[in-house]
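TA notes, week 10

Several of you asked for a full example with nothing omitted. So below is the full record: structure tokens for the whole chain, then the designed sequence directly under it. When grading your own attempts, check the secondary structure regions first.
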């Protein structure tokens, strides 16, 4: 279901966004949402979701927006641990050639996520994070994600704190 959702998203998201009257693209995105929902209720979600929850709870950032901003940063952080699965998705969706090395195909997939975010007007970083809030948010994200979430790379609270710095782009509320 997850693979089918990725294929549908790849093939339809930008079309549905740019041409809201395209009912087939919208139906396909509805199907993608359903398939993704079924997939993550069976395999759980990951750190992207846990960090997004903490940002929503602390700052009121919409959950989908937070997930979209965090996703490419977290995928890059996962690195080689996630490369085979991301490469598989990239090849399946036609983002990378069938013969591409895993690391290159995985990077192509992440680059596609970045391009989609840009095309949809999604910012690269989360603004307004206060450095002083990070330890508590990381503690909450760690408690939510560990040990239930299936992730390619386990992180501890300190590594999660670093992820908040990454998704803030090093810019924190109240600092110059």
């Amino acid at each position: 279901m997850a693979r089918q959702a990725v294929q549908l998203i790849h093939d339809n998201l930008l079309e549905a966004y740019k041409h809201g009257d395209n009912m087939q693209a919208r139906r396909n995105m509805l199907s993608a949402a359903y398939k993704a929902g079924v997939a993550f209720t069976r395999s759980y979600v990951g750190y992207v979701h846990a960090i997004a929850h903490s940002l929503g709870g602390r700052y009121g950032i919409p959950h989908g927006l937070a997930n979209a901003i965090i996703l490419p940063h977290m995928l890059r952080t996962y690195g080689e641990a996630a490369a085979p699965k991301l490469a598989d998705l990239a090849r399946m969706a036609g983002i990378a050639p069938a013969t591409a090395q895993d690391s290159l195909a995985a990077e192509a997939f992440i680059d596609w996520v970045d391009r989609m975010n840009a095309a949809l007007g999604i910012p690269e970083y989360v603004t307004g994070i206060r450095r002083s809030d990070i330890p508590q948010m990381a503690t909450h994200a760690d408690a939510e994600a560990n040990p239930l979430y299936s992730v390619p790379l386990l992180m501890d609270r300190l590594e999660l704190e670093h992820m908040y710095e990454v998704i803030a782009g090093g810019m924190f509320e109240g600092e110059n």
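The CA atoms of residues 50 and 141 lie 5 Å apart. Use that as a sanity check on your answer.
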